[in-house]
Amino acid sequence: MNNQSLAERRRRAVSPAAYSSHPIYPARAEGAYVWDADGTRYLDWSVGIAVMNVGHSHPRVIEAVKRQAETFQHLCFAVGMHESYIQLAEKLNAIAPGPSEKRTFLVNSGAEAVENAVKIARVATGRQGIVAFTHAFHGRTHMALSLTAKANPYKAGFAPRAAEVYRAQYPYLYRNPWGATTAAEVAERALAALKDQVKTTIGEGEVAAFMIEPVAGEGGFIPAPRAFLEGLQTYAKEIGALWIDDEVQAGMGRTGAWWTVDHYGLEPDLVCSAKALSSGFPLSAVVGKAEVMDKIAPGQLGSTFGGNPVSCAAALATLEVIEEEGLLERAREIGVVATEKLKALQKDLPKIGDVRGLGAMIGIEFVTGPDKTPDSNAAQAVLEHARADGLLLLTTGTYGNVIRLLPPLKMSDAELSEGLEKLEAALRAVLEPVAVGV
Predict the structure, then answer these.
(1) How far is CA 359 from CA 55, 215, 259, 432, in A?
(2) Considering the entire predicted model, what is its pTM?
(3) For residues 122 and 311, is the Cβ–Cβ distance under 8 A?
(4) DSSP secondary structure string, 124-153?
(5) Fewer CB atoms near the end CB (10 Å): N or C, the chain?
(6) How would DSSP label each residue in 156-196?
C-alpha cells in the first residue's frame, strides 16, 4: 500500500476535519527518522508535535510497554489504582518545579489536563475567572478552546464558549502594542496592562487563575520573559489567585530543563503536562501544590482511561531515558548550535524577521518589509521545500508565518548537521533574493 492508494482510502473514510500538514503516510519510524508508505525516508523535526522527544521507537520505552501490556492493559483507577500510576505520580511530584509538596492527577491529553486544572483552580479558590493570553493554545475541548486565542481553525463556529474566560496581552517581544524593544520593557508593559485589566474590567477578587504557556507554542514559539513570569507569580499571590503553567508542548526537557519555569527557579501552583510525557501513548498530568490539590473531594475528578497502565509504563521509561541519557543537556546543546546557525542566516535573509526560543524549541518568523507584515507563504514554501529534501518541519504562529523546530533530543551530531543543512537549503531556496539581469 503506497501513499497514493492510502490517500484515496482516507478521502473515502476519514472526516476532512482531520487535517495533516504533510501528504505522507508513515509506515515505520526509528530514532530521528520516519519512512512513509512509499519507502521515502525523512529526518523528523516535528516528532509528532513535540511528542517523541526521546526519538521514535526507543527500545527502553517499547520494552516497558510490552512488559506492561502482557501483564494487564486496563483497570480504571476508579475501580482500583495500579502501582505504576502511583510510581509515575511520585516521579512527577519529585521533578515538579519548586520545593512545595506535590500531588498528581492523570488524564489522557493536554486539553484534558487544562480542563482539570481549571476545575481544580475554581474549587480551590472558590472563584470562577480564568485569565488566558493572546497567542495561547490550550486545546480543543470546550473549556480549552475557549482559553485558546486563535479563531481559525480552532474556535470559529464553536459557540457558545465557556464563561468567565478573559484574555490579556502575551509579552511578545517581536510584536507588541507598546513598541517595546527589550525583554525587560515588554515584560513591564505587559504586566502593567494585565494588572490594569484585572483591576478595572474583571475584579481581582474574581480571578481563580492565570493560565499561560511559558513558551507560547501554537502562537509562534514565543518565550515569555523571566520578569513577566516572576511578576505574574507575585501578582497571583497578592490577589489570592493561582498560576497555572501549561507546559504541554514546552515541558519534558524540550527547552533544556524538565520545565521551562525551571530556567527561572519559579514554582507555579499547577502544571499541565502531556505530549512528550509518554512518548506517543495517551497520557497527561496535572501536577500541583498539595495545599491546592488536596482541596478537591474524592470523586470530583475522574477519567476512565486516565493513567492507563501501559501509558504509565511508557512515561516512566521516557522519564528514565531523559534523565539517564542526558537529554536535558542535549536539548540545550541543540539549541545553541541551531540558534547560532539561524542567527547567521538571518543576516543574509531579511525575510527572517525573528529567531527565538529556548533549548530545542526554536521558532523562525518570516516577514515582508520593515513593517513586519507576516509572510505565511514563505513559511509554507520552506516546509514544502524541506519535505522534498527529506526533512519534516511544521509551521505555527497566530499568523501562520513561523517554522517551528522540534528535533528529537536524542539525536547525533551528524543528524543535527544533516537537518540544519537541509533547513538552510530550504531557507535559501525560498528567501534568497533573485538576481535580475540588466
Answers:
(1) 16, 11, 11, 27
(2) 0.96
(3) no
(4) HHS--EEEEETT----SSHHHHHH----TT
(5) C
(6) TT--SPPSSEEEE----SSS-TT---SHHHHHHHHHHHHHH
CATH of 61-324, picked from 3.40.50.300, 3.40.640.10, 3.40.30.10, 3.30.479.20, is 3.40.640.10
pLDDT at 268 over 90: yes
- DSSP for 381-407? HHHHHHHHTTEE-EEESTTS-EEEE--
Say yes or no: domain 3-54+326-431 is CATH 3.20.20.20: no
Let me know: does 390 contact 41? Beta carbons within 8 Å. yes
Map out the domains of the chain as residue ranges: 3-54+326-431, 61-324
- Please, which pLDDT band fits residue 81 given cuts at 50, 70 and 90? confident
Closest to 261 measured CA to CA, from 404, 96, 93: 96
d(CA 223, CA 271): 17
pLDDT of residue 341: 98
pLDDT score, position 77 = 85
